[in-house]
Amino acid sequence: RFRRYAEAKRWLTRALAVAEPDDVLMKLALPNWELDVNANTRPLHEAIDSLRATNPAAVRSATAANWLFCALAERDGAAATQALSALGNKEIRIVDQVQFNRAFVEGVIARMTNDEQKAQSAFTAAHAEQEKIVAAQPDFGPSWCVLGMIDAGLGRKEEALREGRHALELLPVEKDALVGQYLVRYFAVIAAWVGEKDLACEQLAIAIRPPSNVGYGELKLMPWWDPLRGDPRFEKIVASLAPK
Predict the structure, then answer these.
(1) 6: domain range?
(2) Cβ neighbours of residue 200 under 8 Å, at least 6 residues apart?
(3) Less Cβ around it within 10 Å: N or C end of the chain?
(4) Given 63, 90, 117, which residue is the final one in a domain?
(5) CA 186 and chain centroid, separation
Protein backbone atom coordinates (compact mmCIF):
# COMPACT_ATOMS: atom_id res chain seq x y z
CA ARG A 1 0.00 0.00 0.00
CA PHE A 2 2.94 2.30 0.61
CA ARG A 3 4.84 0.96 -2.45
CA ARG A 4 7.81 -0.30 -0.45
CA TYR A 5 8.27 -2.96 -3.09
CA ALA A 6 11.75 -4.24 -2.23
CA GLU A 7 10.87 -4.50 1.45
CA ALA A 8 7.64 -6.32 0.64
CA LYS A 9 9.49 -8.80 -1.56
CA ARG A 10 12.02 -9.53 1.20
CA TRP A 11 9.27 -10.27 3.70
CA LEU A 12 7.38 -12.45 1.22
CA THR A 13 10.56 -14.40 0.48
CA ARG A 14 11.16 -14.97 4.20
CA ALA A 15 7.56 -16.01 4.77
CA LEU A 16 7.72 -18.47 1.88
CA ALA A 17 10.86 -20.04 3.35
CA VAL A 18 9.04 -20.98 6.56
CA ALA A 19 5.61 -21.68 5.09
CA GLU A 20 4.04 -25.11 5.17
CA PRO A 21 4.69 -27.10 1.96
CA ASP A 22 0.97 -27.26 1.18
CA ASP A 23 0.34 -23.53 1.73
CA VAL A 24 -0.77 -22.75 -1.82
CA LEU A 25 -1.60 -19.10 -1.17
CA MET A 26 1.92 -18.53 0.09
CA LYS A 27 3.28 -20.18 -3.04
CA LEU A 28 1.40 -17.62 -5.08
CA ALA A 29 2.48 -14.61 -3.03
CA LEU A 30 5.67 -13.81 -4.95
CA PRO A 31 4.10 -14.50 -8.36
CA ASN A 32 1.27 -12.14 -7.41
CA TRP A 33 3.88 -9.58 -6.35
CA GLU A 34 5.49 -9.85 -9.79
CA LEU A 35 2.19 -9.20 -11.51
CA ASP A 36 1.27 -6.30 -9.26
CA VAL A 37 4.64 -4.56 -9.24
CA ASN A 38 6.18 -5.45 -12.61
CA ALA A 39 3.11 -6.30 -14.72
CA ASN A 40 4.73 -9.70 -15.27
CA THR A 41 2.14 -12.48 -15.47
CA ARG A 42 4.50 -15.33 -16.30
CA PRO A 43 5.43 -16.40 -12.72
CA LEU A 44 1.77 -16.48 -11.66
CA HIS A 45 0.73 -18.29 -14.83
CA GLU A 46 3.43 -20.93 -14.29
CA ALA A 47 2.60 -21.32 -10.60
CA ILE A 48 -1.09 -21.84 -11.36
CA ASP A 49 -0.29 -24.32 -14.13
CA SER A 50 1.86 -26.25 -11.66
CA LEU A 51 -0.92 -26.28 -9.06
CA ARG A 52 -3.47 -27.39 -11.64
CA ALA A 53 -1.23 -30.33 -12.49
CA THR A 54 -0.29 -31.34 -8.95
CA ASN A 55 -3.11 -30.10 -6.72
CA PRO A 56 -6.35 -29.60 -8.69
CA ALA A 57 -8.39 -29.28 -5.50
CA ALA A 58 -6.47 -26.12 -4.59
CA VAL A 59 -7.40 -24.51 -7.90
CA ARG A 60 -11.05 -25.25 -7.23
CA SER A 61 -10.83 -23.42 -3.93
CA ALA A 62 -8.24 -20.94 -2.75
CA THR A 63 -6.42 -20.14 -5.98
CA ALA A 64 -9.21 -19.84 -8.55
CA ALA A 65 -9.47 -16.08 -7.98
CA ASN A 66 -5.74 -15.75 -8.70
CA TRP A 67 -6.21 -17.78 -11.87
CA LEU A 68 -9.06 -15.50 -12.95
CA PHE A 69 -7.01 -12.36 -12.28
CA CYS A 70 -4.06 -13.77 -14.22
CA ALA A 71 -6.24 -14.81 -17.16
CA LEU A 72 -7.81 -11.36 -17.36
CA ALA A 73 -4.37 -9.76 -17.25
CA GLU A 74 -3.30 -11.99 -20.15
CA ARG A 75 -6.53 -11.34 -22.09
CA ASP A 76 -7.15 -15.09 -22.22
CA GLY A 77 -10.91 -15.44 -22.42
CA ALA A 78 -10.92 -19.24 -22.38
CA ALA A 79 -8.74 -19.41 -19.26
CA ALA A 80 -10.81 -16.71 -17.57
CA THR A 81 -13.98 -18.70 -18.23
CA GLN A 82 -12.34 -21.84 -16.83
CA ALA A 83 -11.21 -19.97 -13.73
CA LEU A 84 -14.68 -18.52 -13.23
CA SER A 85 -16.10 -22.03 -13.43
CA ALA A 86 -13.52 -23.25 -10.91
CA LEU A 87 -14.68 -20.60 -8.46
CA GLY A 88 -18.01 -22.41 -8.21
CA ASN A 89 -20.30 -20.59 -5.81
CA LYS A 90 -17.50 -18.75 -4.03
CA GLU A 91 -17.58 -14.98 -3.69
CA ILE A 92 -16.00 -13.25 -6.67
CA ARG A 93 -13.65 -10.44 -5.89
CA ILE A 94 -11.65 -9.48 -8.98
CA VAL A 95 -9.87 -7.02 -6.76
CA ASP A 96 -10.29 -7.20 -2.98
CA GLN A 97 -13.18 -5.95 -0.86
CA VAL A 98 -15.94 -5.51 -3.47
CA GLN A 99 -17.99 -8.59 -4.35
CA PHE A 100 -19.21 -9.12 -7.92
CA ASN A 101 -21.76 -11.57 -9.20
CA ARG A 102 -20.87 -14.21 -11.76
CA ALA A 103 -22.85 -12.66 -14.60
CA PHE A 104 -20.93 -9.39 -14.25
CA VAL A 105 -17.60 -11.19 -14.63
CA GLU A 106 -19.00 -13.05 -17.63
CA GLY A 107 -19.79 -9.65 -19.11
CA VAL A 108 -16.25 -8.41 -18.48
CA ILE A 109 -14.83 -11.51 -20.18
CA ALA A 110 -17.20 -11.17 -23.13
CA ARG A 111 -16.33 -7.51 -23.65
CA MET A 112 -12.63 -8.31 -23.36
CA THR A 113 -13.03 -10.84 -26.18
CA ASN A 114 -15.10 -8.41 -28.29
CA ASP A 115 -18.36 -10.34 -27.97
CA GLU A 116 -20.58 -7.34 -27.31
CA GLN A 117 -23.87 -9.21 -27.69
CA LYS A 118 -22.83 -11.69 -25.01
CA ALA A 119 -21.52 -8.86 -22.84
CA GLN A 120 -24.84 -7.02 -22.95
CA SER A 121 -26.74 -10.20 -22.14
CA ALA A 122 -24.46 -10.95 -19.20
CA PHE A 123 -24.62 -7.40 -17.83
CA THR A 124 -28.42 -7.47 -18.11
CA ALA A 125 -28.54 -10.66 -16.06
CA ALA A 126 -26.06 -9.18 -13.59
CA HIS A 127 -28.24 -6.08 -13.22
CA ALA A 128 -31.33 -8.07 -12.29
CA GLU A 129 -29.35 -9.96 -9.65
CA GLN A 130 -27.61 -6.88 -8.26
CA GLU A 131 -30.86 -4.92 -7.96
CA LYS A 132 -32.07 -7.54 -5.48
CA ILE A 133 -28.86 -7.20 -3.47
CA VAL A 134 -29.17 -3.41 -3.35
CA ALA A 135 -32.81 -3.69 -2.28
CA ALA A 136 -31.73 -5.95 0.59
CA GLN A 137 -28.72 -3.74 1.50
CA PRO A 138 -29.80 -0.18 0.67
CA ASP A 139 -27.16 1.40 2.91
CA PHE A 140 -24.22 -0.75 1.80
CA GLY A 141 -21.90 1.26 -0.43
CA PRO A 142 -20.12 -1.62 -2.22
CA SER A 143 -23.44 -3.01 -3.48
CA TRP A 144 -24.30 0.33 -5.07
CA CYS A 145 -20.80 0.50 -6.53
CA VAL A 146 -21.26 -2.84 -8.29
CA LEU A 147 -24.68 -1.77 -9.59
CA GLY A 148 -23.04 1.36 -10.97
CA MET A 149 -20.41 -0.70 -12.77
CA ILE A 150 -23.09 -2.93 -14.27
CA ASP A 151 -25.07 0.07 -15.50
CA ALA A 152 -21.86 1.49 -16.94
CA GLY A 153 -21.36 -1.80 -18.77
CA LEU A 154 -24.88 -1.43 -20.15
CA GLY A 155 -24.19 2.14 -21.28
CA ARG A 156 -26.62 3.68 -18.79
CA LYS A 157 -24.46 6.71 -18.10
CA GLU A 158 -26.62 8.78 -15.76
CA GLU A 159 -27.68 5.81 -13.65
CA ALA A 160 -24.10 4.52 -13.41
CA LEU A 161 -22.66 7.85 -12.28
CA ARG A 162 -25.47 8.41 -9.80
CA GLU A 163 -25.01 4.95 -8.27
CA GLY A 164 -21.24 5.31 -8.12
CA ARG A 165 -21.54 8.65 -6.34
CA HIS A 166 -24.12 7.23 -3.96
CA ALA A 167 -21.70 4.44 -3.05
CA LEU A 168 -19.08 7.05 -2.15
CA GLU A 169 -21.62 8.98 -0.09
CA LEU A 170 -22.54 5.87 1.87
CA LEU A 171 -18.95 4.84 2.52
CA PRO A 172 -16.49 7.72 2.05
CA VAL A 173 -12.77 7.25 2.51
CA GLU A 174 -13.01 9.28 5.72
CA LYS A 175 -15.31 6.64 7.18
CA ASP A 176 -13.48 3.54 5.91
CA ALA A 177 -10.06 4.20 4.42
CA LEU A 178 -9.68 0.69 2.99
CA VAL A 179 -13.05 -0.06 1.41
CA GLY A 180 -13.68 3.60 0.61
CA GLN A 181 -10.51 3.64 -1.47
CA TYR A 182 -11.78 0.67 -3.47
CA LEU A 183 -15.03 2.51 -4.16
CA VAL A 184 -13.07 5.50 -5.48
CA ARG A 185 -11.14 3.13 -7.75
CA TYR A 186 -14.29 1.56 -9.11
CA PHE A 187 -15.96 4.95 -9.53
CA ALA A 188 -13.01 5.78 -11.78
CA VAL A 189 -13.81 2.64 -13.78
CA ILE A 190 -17.48 3.63 -13.98
CA ALA A 191 -16.53 7.07 -15.28
CA ALA A 192 -14.13 5.55 -17.81
CA TRP A 193 -16.74 3.11 -19.08
CA VAL A 194 -19.30 5.87 -19.70
CA GLY A 195 -16.82 8.13 -21.47
CA GLU A 196 -16.15 10.61 -18.66
CA LYS A 197 -12.37 10.49 -18.96
CA ASP A 198 -11.73 13.71 -17.02
CA LEU A 199 -13.67 12.39 -14.05
CA ALA A 200 -12.09 8.95 -14.36
CA CYS A 201 -8.54 10.30 -14.27
CA GLU A 202 -9.43 12.64 -11.41
CA GLN A 203 -10.79 9.77 -9.33
CA LEU A 204 -7.92 7.46 -10.22
CA ALA A 205 -5.43 10.10 -9.11
CA ILE A 206 -7.17 10.01 -5.72
CA ALA A 207 -7.26 6.21 -5.64
CA ILE A 208 -3.49 5.82 -6.09
CA ARG A 209 -2.61 8.00 -3.11
CA PRO A 210 -0.87 5.90 -0.43
CA PRO A 211 -2.01 3.82 1.28
CA SER A 212 -3.39 2.34 -1.93
CA ASN A 213 -3.84 -1.11 -3.41
CA VAL A 214 -3.94 0.14 -6.98
CA GLY A 215 -0.88 -1.42 -8.57
CA TYR A 216 1.10 -0.87 -11.74
CA GLY A 217 0.21 -4.34 -13.02
CA GLU A 218 -3.52 -3.73 -12.72
CA LEU A 219 -3.42 -0.41 -14.55
CA LYS A 220 -1.04 -1.71 -17.20
CA LEU A 221 -2.83 -4.97 -17.96
CA MET A 222 -6.43 -5.16 -16.81
CA PRO A 223 -9.17 -4.76 -19.42
CA TRP A 224 -11.41 -2.54 -17.31
CA TRP A 225 -8.94 0.32 -17.79
CA ASP A 226 -8.93 0.02 -21.60
CA PRO A 227 -11.17 3.06 -22.25
CA LEU A 228 -8.44 5.27 -20.75
CA ARG A 229 -5.50 3.85 -22.67
CA GLY A 230 -3.76 6.46 -24.76
CA ASP A 231 -5.06 9.32 -22.62
CA PRO A 232 -1.94 11.25 -21.51
CA ARG A 233 -3.30 11.72 -17.97
CA PHE A 234 -3.91 8.02 -17.54
CA GLU A 235 -0.56 7.07 -19.04
CA LYS A 236 1.16 9.50 -16.67
CA ILE A 237 -0.51 7.80 -13.69
CA VAL A 238 0.52 4.37 -14.98
CA ALA A 239 4.11 5.55 -15.46
CA SER A 240 4.17 6.98 -11.94
CA LEU A 241 3.53 3.49 -10.54
CA ALA A 242 6.05 1.71 -12.76
CA PRO A 243 8.95 0.01 -10.95
CA LYS A 244 11.91 2.33 -10.59
Answers:
(1) 1-90
(2) 188, 189, 191, 192, 227, 228, 234
(3) C
(4) 90
(5) 9
Is residue 134 domain-shared with residue 229, that is, in the same domain? Answer: yes
Position 1 pLDDT exceeds 50 = no
C-alpha span between 190 and 33 (Å, rounded): 26
100-136 pLDDT, tens digit per residue, is 999 999 999 999 999 999 999 999 999 999 999 999 9
Residues 101 and 144 in one domain: yes
Same domain, 103 and 58: no
Q: Residue 18: pLDDT above 80?
A: no
**Gap between the Cα atoms of 215 and 38, Å rounded:** 9
Q: What is the three-class DSSP state of 92?
A: strand
- First-to-last alpha carbon distance for the chain, in angstroms, is 16
Domain boundary, last residue among 31, 62, 90: 90
Residues in the chain: 244
pLDDT at residue 95 greater than cutoff 60: no
